[in-house]
Amino acid sequence: MMAEIRATDGQLAEKPIIVTRGSSLADSKEVSDAITKELEKVLAPQKGKVVNWVHLRRQISETVQKYLFKKFRTRPLVMPVVIEV
After folding, report:
1. pLDDT digits (tens, 9 = 90+) for 29-66
2. Spatial separation of the C-alpha atoms in residues 62 and 8, rounded to whole Å
3. DSSP alpha helix (H) spans, the chain
4. Long-range Cβ pairs for the range 72-81 (8 Å, 24+)
5. Would you call 12 helix, strand, or coil by DSSP?
């Protein structure tokens, strides 16, 4: 998954791009939209400039993993690529 995060406020700059291999879990638009909403909820409390990108990347990964487990009862490997914009 690739997410563009604004460095100034830590919010999503655009909808994340989800890439899957060997599974079609995230191919549907509704799953992609739901993951985007979950990430927006998690990133909402972030105020000010992002100083710890490792923590942010881990937070994104855990959020997506929890959502996918709750929805599909699977534990896929989530590798977030966070791009600072």
Report:
1. 888 899 999 999 999 998 889 999 999 999 999 999 99
2. 22
3. 29-43, 53-72
4. 72/25, 74/23, 74/25, 76/20, 76/23, 76/25, 78/1, 79/1, 80/1, 80/2, 80/3, 81/1, 81/2, 81/3
5. strand
Token digits of residue 27: 């191919």
Mean pLDDT of 11-40: 84
Contact call for residues 15 and 8 (beta carbons, < 8 A): no
Tell me if the pTM is above 0.85: yes
Whole-angstrom Cα distance, residue 25 to residue 44?
Answer: 26
Measured between alpha carbons, how far is 14 from 2 in angstroms, rounded to an integer?
10
Domains of the chain: 2-84 (3.10.20.580)
